[in-house]
Design goal:
- This protein is an alpha/beta fold.
- It has one domain: Aldolase class I (TIM Barrel, Alpha-Beta Barrel), CATH 3.20.20.70.
- It has 11 helices and 8 strands.
- Helix 4 runs parallel beside helix 5.
- It binds the ligand O=C([C@H](O)CO)[C@H](O)[C@H](O)COP(=O)(O)O.
- The site of the ligand O=C([C@H](O)CO)[C@H](O)[C@H](O)COP(=O)(O)O has 18 residues, from helix 2, strand 8 and helix 10.
- It comes from Paenibacillus monticola.
- Pfam families: OMPdecase (PF00215).
- This is 3-hexulose-6-phosphate synthase.
- One of its GO terms (molecular function) is hexulose-6-phosphate synthase activity.
């Protein structure tokens, strides 16, 4: 099981400061959608250049033009690029095709998908690398989490790895780990802690035991 740190509410300088503190405890660093909106794909390049040994995920949440947008993210240094599960199959197919040219990976984010089991099975058949259940900020504000969704998709996903994101904290991590995802994605549960390094270290310890 791997740990991904999601960086959302910081600029490039802030992102570098955080990653410098926790790099040894994380497997993947995510350049979150808000950073890409604020700074563009330069943020992906900046983190990849500063931390070349880390896997960098660009959370573009692609909805259309899958091939083109994956190409641009990969040119910027992304190793994994996100595409929305609610997008058309052709968008996801284009993204997968483009990523495969350079051995990069596609993570499909099932945020706001209504029939999560059916769509997970469909995108699994499209050859994506990760399928992620996700309660975004707006869902979290409504008190929704994705723990049950993870169990639901695990029964139908046969090829892709599974991931979970959205409001995961140290207190809820054991419940997440029990559902056995391949990738646990944590943003505020690390960056919002007073001791960021200690939070990342403890999360890494727990996911490594699984
Ligand atoms: O993808 C995310 C969200 O939609 C904002 O872009 C976050 O990176 C993801 O939810 C993980 O962050 P936390 O919920 O703070 O753990």
């Amino acid at each position: 099981m791997k740990l991904q740190l999601a960086l959302d509410l910081v600029d490039i300088a802030g992102a570098k400061e955080i990653v410098a503190q926790v790099a040894e405890y994380i497997d993947v660093v995510e350049i979150g959608t808000p950073i890409v909106i604020n700074e563009g794909l330069h943020a992906v390049r900046a983190i990849k250049d500063a931390f070349p040994s880390l896997t960098v995920l660009a959370d573009l949440k692609i909805m259309d033009a899958g091939g083109y947008e994956v190409m641009k993210a990969v040119e910027a240094g992304a190793d994994i690029v996100t595409v929305l599960g609610v997008s058309a199959d052709s968008t996801i197919r284009g993204a997968v095709l483009e990523a495969k040219k350079t051995n990069k990976l596609i993570l499909v984010d099932l945020i706001s998908v209504k029939d999560i089991k059916t769509r997970a099975a469909e995108v699994d058949a499209l050859g994506v690398d990760y399928i992620c259940v996700h309660s975004g900020y707006d869902h979290q504000a409504e008190g929704i989490n994705s723990f049950a969704d993870l169990q639901a998709i695990k029964s139908v996903v046969k090829n892709a790895k599974t991931a979970i994101a959205g409001g995961i904290k140290l207190s809820t991590l054991p419940e997440v780990i029990a559902a056995n995802p391949d990738l646990v994605i944590v943003g505020g549960g690390i960056t919002g802690e007073a001791d960021i390094r200690a939070a990342a270290a403890e999360m890494k310890r727990l996911v490594s035991q699984a």
